[in-house]
Amino acid sequence: MEYVVRAVRAEEWQRAKELRLAALRDPAAPIAFLETYEQALSKPDVFWQERTAGAAVGEHSRQFIAEAPDGLWAGTVSVLVERPAGEPGFGEAAEVDQAHLVGVFVRPGHRGRGLVDALFLEAIEWSWSLSGPPLERVRLYVHEANARAEASYRRIGFAPTGRTLPMEGDPTALELEFEIRRRKR
Questions:
Q1: pLDDT of 34-59, one tens digit each?
Q2: What is the per-residue pLDDT across 127-154, written as a single tens digit (0 to 9) for each?
Q3: In terms of domain of life, where is this protein from (predicted)?
């Protein structure tokens, strides 16, 4: 694969903003993201600067990007670290030390090239490498109608936990939780 997968850098906030806006224009955005293009577009530059800086360093979150040979950011995934003693994450407070993958996106012209796999591998390896109490699992949620994403996650090794949450804004639809457990040593 000719793509470079790496963590975003704080000074790259404009590129991070552009990639997020591209993701929110994707036809799957209404079932993949909890934000609209209009909401994201209305946020000031300082929001994007702080968000990118926070995702570039630290042990609470990290954003990874896949950079194409021509320099285009072709895909992304973000990791949020959730600890039982911390703030509640998506849906509920963490019962175990865990990571939560969010903001998964690959540009249409770059799909089918293994980018989701490469991004997830980097995100999972980073999650297992954190100091402090070891993370027990990496989780994500997928809309019940997002079969393409679900198939990718299963191929990578994520398995359904049986937990579901109502979709924000549409309580008749469900978000399905998937996880990968840390291997016991």
A1: 899 999 999 999 999 999 999 998 78
A2: 999 988 999 999 999 999 999 899 999 9
A3: Bacteria
Separation of alpha carbons 152 and 119, rounded Å: 12
Residue 139: closest CA among 116, 163, 118 = 163
User: Where in the sequence is the domain holding 25, given as residue range(s)?
Assistant: 4-181
Q: How many domains does the chain have?
A: 1
Q: Which pTM was predicted?
A: 0.93
CA of 143: how far to CAs of 30, 178, 183, in Å? Answer: 10, 11, 27
CATH of the domain at 91: 3.40.630.30
Q: Where are the alpha helices (DSSP H) in the chain?
A: 13-24, 29-32, 37-41, 45-56, 115-129, 147-156
Which is higher by pLDDT, 75 or 28? Answer: 75
Cα dist. 1→14, 55, 61 in Å?
Answer: 26, 24, 26
Among 91, 150, 79, 149, residue whose Cα is nearest residue 121: 79
